[in-house]
# Entry
Amino acid sequence: MRLGFHYHNPAVIRDGHIYLPGDTGPFIDSLAGYCEQVICFLHSPNPNDLDLMDYRISSNNVRLIDIGTHSSVIERTLKANTYTSFLRRYGSEMDILLVRGPSPLLPAMVRASPVPTALLLVGDYLTGVDDLPQPRWRKEAIRLWSYWNKWGQDRAARHSLTFVNSQTLYEDLKNKATNLHLIHTTNLTNGDFFIRSDTCQSRPYRLLYVGRMDRSKGLLQMVEAVAWLTERGEDVVLTMVGWQEPGDPVLDEIQVLAKEKNITDRVHYLGSRPLGPTLFEFYREADIFIIASFSEGFPRVIWEAMAHSLPVIATRVGGIPDLIEGKAELIRPRSVSDLVEAIQHLLHNQELRQKYIQVGFLLAQENGLAKQALKMIQKLEEQLL
# Structure
């Protein structure tokens, strides 16, 4: 099978090798193992994207087609025909096109594709509009565009093989998509797992967050929780690892809040790390993993935490409860008190902590990258037949 692929993440060629962000590159490599060729129709990075190009494609049958600069959403929307013209140019070299979404060009890519299409949907833009650090008028403009993009995404799903990574998305699309399948998105390979029976064996207890530095991830609530826990006599530190979100000053606000609460020595932002051993070392050194998002599809960092034998605290949003109910501490979004209670619950309940570690590790194994990629490839081949 000759597979085309598009997503809004950019890519670059350095020293003859293709580099992508770590949340996309391993997925491409996994698909390439089952394909004759994978043609990636991706943007070239703008200067702010260059640090994110941290994963080198290892497969020799992956080809990169630069469809233009990773420009603003508005520019990509208005000039969609320019970007999609590459599909027609290389249409004879692929059998099917896989488009990951949400993505600004998803509707246009599906319309322009000269071959059958498949979608991999991990969310929609509407769910996060209210949490954007933007003035009211701009939020409403973004909301209108998001409705338009969602309409186009739903319309594309009617005529495409469609994969979704959460039960929430499945329920939303089950009466709209004609060929719909639930699949779990992950980047975990067999060598990424780390076995241990327990955490919280020494002080200070290390809380970890990995992901985008975006206020909608509940970052300020995490800092508030550390302040509350410190007042209660708990010896905890919070480490945050991930890339800054352009236009969101939340890192500055975290510094101000930590200073106000007199916990600057307990809150540490360590920047972004590439997917792999450098990043995974943080999971191995941590005691509890926290993701306090206001909205989500299903974040891959939960699988990464569970694969490294970490008990997880997550908010009851999106597809999270459908997949890990009873296997992690689930709390209400935006609730600092819930987060504090969940952390203390895990700190002082060894039996529960060990249970979450064990069942989470097994669940992460069941949802490894190789298994999920094979499921997708089988469905793609069935679609072509």
Notes: The chain is about 40% helix and 20% strand. The longest helix spans residues 136-158. The CA atoms of residues 67 and 82 lie 8 Å apart.
